[in-house]
Design goal:
By secondary structure, this protein is an alpha+beta fold. Helices cover 15% and strands 26% of the residues. It is built from five helices and 14 strands. The strands form three sheets. Strands 1, 2, 3, 4, 6, 7, 9 and 12 form an eight-stranded mixed beta sheet that branches. A four-stranded antiparallel beta sheet has the order 11-10-13-14, with no helix packed on it. Strands 5-8 form a two-stranded antiparallel ribbon. A hairpin with a 2-residue loop joins β10 (193-198) and β11 (201-207). It binds magnesium ion. Magnesium ion is lined by residues 59, 121, 123, 152, 235, 237-238.
Length: 273
Amino acid sequence: MSAGVVAGIKSFSTSGDPMIDVIRGTADGADLSYDGEHYRLADVRLLPPIVQPSKNILCIGKNYLEHAAEFARSGFDSSTNNQTDVIPDAPIIFSKAPCTMVGAHENIAPPWGITQKVDYEGELGVVIGKAGRSIASRDAYAHVWGYTVINDVTARDLQSAHKQWLLGKSIDTFCPIGPWIVSADEVEPENLELQCWVNGELRQSANTRDLIFDIPAIIASISASMSLSPGDIIATGTPAGVGIGFDPPKFLQPGDKVRIAIGGLGALENTVV
Ligand code: MG
């Protein structure tokens, strides 16, 4: 592949999702260079780079040691009663509905009537290129098309109350994603600096080398159960520094600006309304 950065484009789709068409057409390493019309970044509104994945966004819970510990201490973790042995034996997999996705500069709009405990989670997103089932760890990177930035926004009160995390994770606008996808040949996924700020205050700072379950392990685990398809999205987990990691917790409020940047992948900046 030659071009490193591809944003969501509304035209020339055959499948209903133009980016997935691009991924299908280039998953085997075909040239990504683009000879169509060009636009200035400042003149376009960035959509989520993928809008119709084949399934929910697949997410990994508690995949950085210090975050696993802060979550266990917080009292919101319905996945364990154990605050001392916090590392999961197997990846914790949950999902977010695709209707949660918004672009890199769109608003996060919580329904304040049902949640007052809204939290941010900066994460590396993996985009699948080549379809597969029962993918071996050693083959996993051959199935990755590219990488992006994700904010796994979470209603902690719903996550706790419903035990299953789906509703607290799947509120509309609770998955800012983008600003684009960077193709895998441009990225060193096991050495990426991730940072998250709220209103300019640095809250999360980590490196993807500290993932408990790395990308090959995650892909092997998920694909042992379900087929992965081009354009499927995996959020690899968040590091320490989320709102519930503070005492008292620092939940998001209307007007807050959340910025998440990953080295080489760009940044999301979304306002809570
Ligand atoms: Mg998360």
